[in-house]
Automatic annotation (TrEMBL):
Protein name per its UniProtKB record: Protoheme IX farnesyltransferase
Gene3D superfamilies: UbiA prenyltransferase
PROSITE patterns: UBIA (PS00943)
Family note: Belongs to the UbiA prenyltransferase family. Protoheme IX farnesyltransferase subfamily.
InterPro entries: Protohaem_IX_farnesylTrfase, UbiA_prenyltransferase, UbiA_prenylTrfase_CS, UbiA_sf
Other remarks on this protein: Carbon 2 of the heme B porphyrin ring is defined according to the Fischer nomenclature.
Pfam families, sorted: UbiA (PF01040)
EC number: 2.5.1.141
UniProt entry keywords in alphabetical sequence: Cell membrane, Heme biosynthesis, Membrane, Transferase, Transmembrane, Transmembrane helix
Length: 317
């Protein structure tokens, strides 16, 4: 630019910023902030909690309620990526996320997360009830503030305590239908709560260097590989029977019972293989297999609960 008196002329040789240089953000980058894969699990578990409730919601209100819970999960994910941008940039697993790469600014991620938080809570309150909405607000706060800002960088038990945030969605779904919680929804909570440590510690075993570089005190970095493998197996021993509990307590039928037993035995098989691993195993194949199967395990359990509920309706139960 060339200024002449009060006039401003454009220098033909001066570079002009392109729109891409002004903002690198694309819609897909904001979708990535929502952590879609985590959101899909939240939708499944929240829907299960809503479906197993003894109260039938109007289909439209049920869909809006699940949408609100999904938006709330996405909001928590965006707030997590905003705060964790510094350590995400250090880890190979997270380095390509929108904020550390600069495709979305930290300010935009924060504003996006806060706006979605408010939207999700208000939407759930209007579609179902304000108890469920308050529960959702607490869950977002717990994940974004208690876990992300507090526990994650301060204690190797971050996943154990922080895992509660990921275990709340089925209780929120149940509360959306009933306005309360119950033993059934608490069992669904416990399944996810007990599943979280072996799932994430298996990941931490083969991403040990990543967490070490980012100075995140995951259990393998603090207590060592052997202690982590023992705790993975210990949690798995408790998880397997709790996964069968909906059948044992009469909340689910024999189809779920058979599936949960088979899934639980396979989880224990993978966890035992991790327990028998040698320290310093470079390939970490058992840990990788457990991590992959753990996702299938949780999706399988909650999908079978939905199938079981559908069979009850079909059979007039």
């Amino acid at each position: 630019m060339i200024e002449v008196g009060e006039l401003t002329l454009v220098d033909a040789q001066a570079p002009i910023a392109s729109p891409a240089a002004i903002s690198l953000s694309e819609p897909k980058d904001f979708v990535a902030l929502l952590k879609p894969r985590v959101m899909s699990l939240v939708v499944l578990t929240a829907l299960t909690g809503l479906v197993v409730a003894p109260v039938t919601m109007h289909p439209t209100l049920a869909v809006i309620s699940i949408l609100a819970i999904a938006i709330g999960a996405g909001a928590a994910g965006a707030l997590n990526m905003w705060y964790d941008a510094d350590i995400d940039a250090m880890m190979t697993r997270t380095a390509k996320r929108p904020v550390p790469t600069g495709r979305v600014s930290g300010e935009a991620a924060l504003a996006f997360g806060l706006a979605l938080s408010l939207l999700s809570v208000c939407l759930l309150g209007l579609a179902s009830n304000w108890f469920a909405a308050a529960f959702l607000a607490f869950t977002i706060f717990f994940y974004a503030v208690v876990y992300t800002m507090g526990l994650k960088r301060s204690t190797p038990q971050n996943i154990v305590i922080g895992g509660a945030a990921g275990a709340f969605p089925p209780m929120i779904g149940y509360a959306a239908a009933t306005g309360t919680v119950s033993p059934e929804s608490i069992i669904l909570f416990l399944i996810i709560f007990l599943w979280t440590p072996p799932h994430f510690w298996a990941l931490a075993l083969f991403k040990l260097r990543d967490y070490g570089t980012a100075n995140v005190p995951m259990l393998p970095n603090v207590a060592g590989e052997r202690a982590t493998r023992i705790q993975i197996f210990a949690y798995s021993l408790v998880l397997a029977p709790v996964g069968v509990a909906p059948f044992i307590l009469g909340y689910a039928g024999p189809v779920y019972g058979a599936a949960s037993i088979l899934l639980g035995l396979n989880f224990l098989r993978h966890a035992f293989a991790v327990l028998k691993m040698a320290d310093g195993d470079a390939k970490m194949i058992p840990a990788k297999k457990l991590f992959g199967f753990s996702i299938l395990y949780l999706f399988g359990l909650f999908a079978m609960l939905l199938v079981d509920a559908a069979l009850k309706v079909a059979l007039g139960g």
